[in-house]
Amino acid sequence: MSLPARADDGPRLGRPRDPSLDVALVEATLDLLAEGGLAAVTMEAVAARAGVGKATLYRRWPAKEQLVVDALATLSETVELPDGADVRESLVVLVSAVQRRRDSLAGRIFPRLVGQAEDNPELIRRYREQVLEPRRARFRAVLRRGVEEGVLRADLDLDHAYDLLVGPVAYRSLLRTDPPVGPDFPARVVD
Amino acid sequence: MSLPARADDGPRLGRPRDPSLDVALVEATLDLLAEGGLAAVTMEAVAARAGVGKATLYRRWPAKEQLVVDALATLSETVELPDGADVRESLVVLVSAVQRRRDSLAGRIFPRLVGQAEDNPELIRRYREQVLEPRRARFRAVLRRGVEEGVLRADLDLDHAYDLLVGPVAYRSLLRTDPPVGPDFPARVVD
DNA sequence: CGGTTTCGGAACGGTTGCGTCCCGCAAGTG
DNA sequence: CACTTGCGGGACGCAACCGTTCCGAAACCG
After folding, report:
1. CA atoms within 13 A on the CB side of B96
2. Closest-CA residue to A167 (of B165, B66, B96, B110)
């Protein structure tokens, strides 16, 4: 997960690496990424924030690119759905979660990555895998349930519906405008 | 517009400034901004790309921030609406324009600015003024016409409707995913 | 014409991050 | 125990960019 690439040749000689430093370095990377974007993720800054010598960092990640990719791989989102919720209610919860994620770690990192999409597609790809795709899957499941229960149109394009639901909220989150009208958002679109 | 701030004390002595260099510098700034983001906009790079000495650049804009702000002020979008178009048709054209803007200069600059929203709100504010607000006004006009003609619901929240229309397209443009389903996008939402 | 400003080009010192290396100590192996 | 590797910390030379300054030539004024 958060571990740097390393040949696994069984037990090593000498003092073993301190695993907690891997975590500290990854966390420092994500924090800096959220605060100042990729430009703020300097090897010096990461090591300093993790309270670690530069050699310790370079021993694990010889280059910044890989460090950031590995750090992004530790991102994840989890949204709790209320137990007996019907489809509409569930969608409201999920959309609100997207809205609320604006200030979470992953949510703050996202806009920083958007600008790097062109130069560094690997980063945004990783983010998509870790955060966006799970979210989309979550929506799909609920939407499919809606179709099966007859609440939603049978010919509904699930991915398209996802875009319509999430797009407006995510877009406004990126712009950092005031929060959208609130959780009556999905209701209007599902029609 | 694209001119640097300068005390306008009437005619000056000596050799007058070459106005074409103002334009060249602003264009160089926007190009670099689109290509590599704010990080790529260095005073050296701007001067070099414009084919100009650094002194010439610094004489007009003593700091980078102001240069970028002034450069952004020259951005604009124009969308031609077909003459006899009805409301739905007009919306389709406008939404498609948003989609197509993905590869325009302004469209390529936008994702670069998104990541700077936190550190440098002035930039995104400027972009919003120059590009986003005019676009929104354009939509509002068409939507209002729709309400007046009875094609759209009378209690329609124009800004909200704008978000629902543009959000999904803009969001997917930012992600640089494949283009959305196409210009049947607005039809589904306007209902 | 002389005076003034702009022009391209180049140099300057200062700052920041890079990637590497070395130190002295800590923490494991046999 | 000797040996090996990890650790924090700091120093190194290198490169890029900053903002400033100087130059000689060019362009415009009265």
Report:
1. 13
2. B165
Phi-psi region of A141 (alpha: psi -120 to 50; beta: other; left: phi over 0): alpha
What whole-number distance in Å separates Cα of residue A91 and Cα of residue A143? 8
**12-51 in chain B: CB under 8 A from chain A:** 36-37, 39
- pLDDT per position as a tens digit, A19-64: 999 999 999 999 999 999 999 999 999 999 999 999 999 999 998 9
Q: Which of residues 95-134 of A touch strand C (CB under 7 A)?
A: none
DSSP, collapsed to helix, strand or coil, labels residue B72 as helix
Contact A124, A116 (CB under 8 A): yes
Query: DSSP E strands: which ranges in chain B?
Result: none
Dihedral, B165, A142, A178, B30 alpha carbons, nearest 10: -60
Read off the DSSP letter of residue A6: -
Q: Which of B115, B160, B169 sits opposite A181 (nearest CB)?
A: B160
Task: Look at residue B61 and give its three-state secondary structure.
Answer: coil
pTM: 0.89
Phi and psi at residue B67, to the nearest 5°: -60, -50
Tokens matching residue B142: 């068409």
- Residue B83, classed as helix, strand or coil, is coil
Distance, CA of B109 to CA of A19 (rounded, Å): 41
Rounded to an integer, what distance in angstroms lies between the CA atom of residue B110 and that of residue B130? 12
Cβ atoms of residues A95 and A27 within 8 Å: no
User: Tens digit of pLDDT for each residue in B86-118?
Assistant: 998 899 999 989 988 999 999 999 999 999 888
Among A residues 104-163, those touching chain B with beta carbons less than 8 Å apart: 111-119, 124, 128, 132, 157, 160, 163
- Which helix (H) or strand (E) segment holds residue B82: the answer is none
B41 touches B35 (CB < 8 A): no
- C-alpha span between A157 and A144 (Å, rounded): 10
What pLDDT band is residue A1 in, cutting at 50, 70 and 90?
Answer: very low
**Residue B3 burial by CB count (10 A; 0-12/13-18/19+): exposed, middle or buried?**
middle
